[in-house]
Amino acid sequence: MSRKTHFVVPNKEKGGWDIKKGGSERASGHFDNKDKAIDRAREISINQKSELVISGRDGRIQRSDSHGNDPCPPRDKK
């Protein structure tokens, strides 16, 4: 079973930040401000119980948050 993911990534053509669903080419949202993109992506991720992956301007992953079935939950959260 593959996990559902949503990404916050830089848009190199328009500038700003896009929200993309894993496996999708098309953005489901575009924002000038990264914090606003993250806030909206988090709402979507919580609603759809998916993994949220946030990238930096260089495209490298900065952090991720699990809002669904976490495949690697912390040991203190059984």
Helix content: 10-25%
Count of runs of 4 or more consecutive helical residues: 1
Largest sheet: 5 strands, mixed
Total discrete domains: 1
**Poorly predicted runs of 5 or more residues:** none
Intertermini distance: 21 Å
Query: What's the assembly state of these chains?
Result: single chain
Strand content: 25-35%
| Helix and strand sequence | EEEHEE
Mean pLDDT across all residues, rounded?
89
* Overall 3D form: globular
* Rg, nearest Å: 13 Å
Going across the major beta sheet, what is the strand order? 3-2-1-4-5
Number of DSSP-assigned strands = 5
- The structural class is alpha+beta
Question: What does this entry look like structurally?
Answer:
- The chain is α+β, with helices and mostly antiparallel strands.
- It contains 1 helix and 5 strands, in the order E-E-E-H-E-E.
- It has one domain (5-60).
- It has a 5-stranded mixed sheet with strand order 3-2-1-4-5, covered by helices on one side.
- The two termini are 21 Å apart.
- The mean pLDDT is 89.
Attribute tags:
globular, single chain, 78 residues, 1 helix, 32% strand, alpha+beta
